[in-house]
Design a protein that fits this description.
CATH superfamily of the largest domain: ATPase, nucleotide binding domain
Number of domains: 2
Largest sheet: 5 strands, mixed
Strand order of the largest sheet: 3-2-1-4-7
CATH class of the largest domain: Alpha Beta
Number of helices: 12
Oligomer: single chain
Number of strands: 12
Shape: globular
Helix content: 40-55%
Structural class: alpha/beta
Length: 324
């Protein structure tokens, strides 16, 4: 009887895989490098090859699986199973992912946007605690998000719902890669934190290890800025306070509209942990009205790199139940 699911988290650097039980428990995990050369034409064949190799290694057949679920960057057509506009994969043209993977493995397939899939994972097995109304914000190279309302992912008419990174938080701010000005992504992503640190450093005149590092031409990262802030470096503290302000503003606006039970903060930047979450909560309370402050919590993500594969596996459960 089929009782296993394959979850795939497709990223610009690596493709993460897992074989999971129907209850979302990971049995095996592995990964392969993402080969984006030749317009990303090698990505799907490598996924198929890797799955088939693992099935042979563990003496499994397609009949052992309920299906394959995958999270992908870009604009996803869930019905057709295609992806377009995943520029970090060099996928400028529509990719028939579902068709190729089903033909190559003999296993049914479902797909959604990677941030949506991570939201499903955190809701099912992580900080969302299987609640019905969850917002997931992922802070990495960019800022993404996924919205679950009434237990269902919100996709929007063009599949673009949940793009929390493109909430305007500073109309006079930095230009975003989307073409707009002052998006959250420009100031709360890993690159945004560094951008703020460099700009703040230009006008800061006090003692600061962060400023010294920047002035010396060292390549600093968002992690460095957070570490300096935890050491009470005054410049770093000012930078992180501003990042928390922008995140609190954006999360407050989202919560005022949706009133989720939980906003989960994940992604690489969130590794700053409670140090960042506590500051976001301060500004969140400033920008929300009393009912929201009483009922919407902000939590740190719990699943780390496993959120994508776990959430992808839940696509199969939802697909089979007709609730995707």
């Amino acid at each position: 009887m089929s009782n296993k699911i394959i979850g795939i988290d497709l990223g610009g650097t690596t493709v993460k895989f897992a074989i999971l039980t129907n209850e979302g428990e990971i049995q095996q995990k592995w990964s392969v490098l993402t080969d984006i050369t030749d317009e990303g034409s090698h990505i799907v064949p490598a996924i198929i090859e890797s799955i088939n190799e693992q099935l042979e290694r563990y003496h499994l057949s397609p009949n052992d699986f309920i299906g394959i679920g995958m999270g992908s960057p870009g604009t996803v057509d869930r019905t057709e199973g295609t992806v377009i506009g995943a520029y970090n994969l060099n996928w400028d043209k529509s990719q028939p992912v579902k068709q190729l993977i089903e033909e190559g493995t003999g296993i049914s397939f479902a797909i959604d946007n990677d941030a949506n899939v991570a939201a499903l994972g955190e809701r099912w097995k992580g900080a969302g605690e299987n609640e019905e109304d969850i917002v997931f914000v992922t802070l990495g190279t960019g800022v993404g998000g996924g919205i679950i309302a009434g237990g269902r992912l919100i996709h929007g008419v063009a599949g673009a719902a949940g793009e929390i990174g493109h909430i305007t938080v500073d109309p006079n701010g930095y230009k975003c890669t989307c073409g707009n000005i002052g998006c959250l992504e420009t100031v709360a992503s890993a690159t945004g934190v560094v951008r703020l640190a460099r700009d703040f450093s230009e006008v800061y005149a006090g003692d600061s290890k962060l400023k010294t590092a920047i002035d010396d031409g060292q390549l600093i990262t968002a992690k460095d800025v957070f570490e300096f802030a935890k050491e009470n470096d005054e410049l770093a503290v000012r930078v992180i306070d501003k990042v928390a302000f922008y995140l609190g503003l954006a999360c407050g606006n989202v919560a005022n509209v949706l009133n989720p039970s939980t906003i989960v903060i994940g992604g690489g930047v969130s590794q700053a942990g409670a140090f960042l979450i506590d500051q976001i909560k301060t500004y969140f309370d400033q920008f929300t009205y009393p009912t929201i402050r009483k009922t919407t919590k902000i939590r740190l993500a719990e699943l780390g790199n496993s959120a994508g594969v776990i959430g992808a596996s839940s696509l199969i459960k939802k697909h089979k139940n007709g609730t995707l």
